[in-house]
Structure formats: structure tokens, C-alpha cells
Design brief:
The structure is a single chain. The chain is mainly alpha-helical. The chain has one domain (6-92, 110-121). Helix content is 65%, strand content 0%. The protein starts with 5 loop residues before the first helix and ends with a helix.
Length: 130
Amino acid sequence: MSEKDPLQGYLDSCRLVTARLVDSITRSSQMASSRTPEMEELFCQWRDLIAREILTHSTDGRLEVDRVAEAIGISPSTVLSLFLALHRAGEVTISSVQFRKGPGMNREICDCLRENSEQIEGEGPDNDGY
């Protein structure tokens, strides 16, 4: 079995990143072109419904982000975003934030990019003399 050429690995990574960027731009463009008053109202209703659901899981004044995200079926980032929206609207006051060290990687990128970047990191200057 032959080793993968470091340059080819880098090029593959660039292709994946480019594909993700193009996909993201395309999706953003499609969403922007679909932004009608009715769609905006439906989104606001959804956001308010999910925000209320978050509050039902936080009856003691604490928000356990991972537990609430799992119970509702959304990501922890979305829970935090919606909770911040409640704070901005004056419906809650955030008075304290508790956190712990994270995994050291961006949770928002797709697995295909994460796997490819890990392969590239193993082929960098410290490992093959580039």
C-alpha cells in the first residue's frame, strides 16, 4: 500500500474546503431569495416555540445546554443562540456563565473536513521536512 503524497492530501483538503464554501454560499443565496414576510413570520414562530421549550427545561434558573439540546433535538450551539435571543429580548437575564474546557476543535464543521485536516496535520513540516 503506498503512502498518500502530502501535496495530494493538501489539494484534497483544499477541494473539500472549496466545496463547503460554495455550498454555504449557495444555501445562503437560496435562503435570502426565499425571505418573504410569510417565511420570516414562520421562522419567528419556530424560534419562539423552541425558545419557550428551552425555558420549560430550565425551571430552576439554570440552563444545562447539552441536556436541553438532546431533549429538544437541536444542537448545543442553537440552544445557546436561542437563549441569547431571549436575553436580548429581555425575557431572561443571564447573570452567570459556567463552562469547562472544550475538545479543542470547531464543532460546527463537517466531519469530512475534520478528518481531512487531521490527516494533513500529520503530514506537515515537522513530519516530512517541508
